[in-house]
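go over this record:
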Amino acid sequence: MTVTLSVRALNRATLARQLLLAREPITVTEAVRRLCGMQAQEPKPPFLGLWTRLDGLQASDLHAALHDRSLVRATMMRATLHLMTGDDYTAFRTAMQPMLDGALRVLGDRAQGLDLQEVVPAARSLLETEPRTFNEVRALLQEQFPDVNDRALGYAVRLCVPLVMVPTEDRWGFPRTSRFTLADGWLGTAPAAEQAIDELMLRYLAAYGPASAADAQTWSGLSASGEALDRLRPGLRVFADDKGRELFDLPDAPRPGEDVPAPARFLPEFDSLVLAHADRRRIIADAHRPSLTTKNLRVRAVFLWDGFARGIWETEYKRKVATLRLRPFEPLPQTAVDELTTEGESLLRFIEPDAKEMVVSVAEED
């Protein structure tokens, strides 16, 4: 008989794998490996996402891992920028290519005249010479391919040439306009020849399971996710959710009880946890999900209490005063406000170490 897992059971299982039931005393590289990457559409959020998951994180820890190349920031799942270990990038970048090729369809008529057989080698040649910003890459390619849309040239290179972003000494590791370089030159090895989708799905379950085939596809962007999970079925546990949908999981993965305490936590903008499932009720209620993204598709920062997203948060820094504002979806009990205030003050000390005053306030419910 198939065991049914409640939404709360799925919440606790996922939080355990996401290092959100207790801060872990592990390195940033090990944490990113266990999370199977962190969305890094902007450079700052991974610093905050690791702070909320690790015991005693210092910003210098992440800087060091970026500069020693054990971590890289590069295009991966869903054709978005992610922070990955160098080993995982090498192992799984090839698995992403069918999805990345498909993403070129958004170019539409702008792709007229675009020949990847010519553009990709030309781009590699430019980037072998030195790291370059995409503004530079587009301009140089436009000289070689004057009849092709410059944005189409840049987008094709971003998707079809394995690249990593070059870290700097900027506070959050990268400047607003970063330089890119060839991944094989930066890491000293080319992406694996095999797609390794099965291994990627196992790693997804370790970080986000139990999960359905639709969940895995939502996280990865890979249409082949369901086929891979079917191949892996003999070695997996199979559960059902409260709607009867099939969920896959690793046999020995943590699935703590529903009553395990979940501490107050702050997730940054674009955190992978709120994007990793088709059914996101294990983290955010359907009623609140529209509040998760802005009109221009920014993924808002959310705070967790008792394991679930209870609202969004934002910070402000003026005149040496660091302020964190909570915007709850619904009224919060005083216990939640107290726990979130204590955690929020610690977060402010990490974000604004020079502040003379820390303020956590609760705004009107959205």
Summary: DSSP finds 13 helices and twelve strands in the chain. The mean pLDDT is 96. The two ends are 42 Å apart (CA to CA). The CA atoms of residues 236 and 250 lie 5 Å apart.
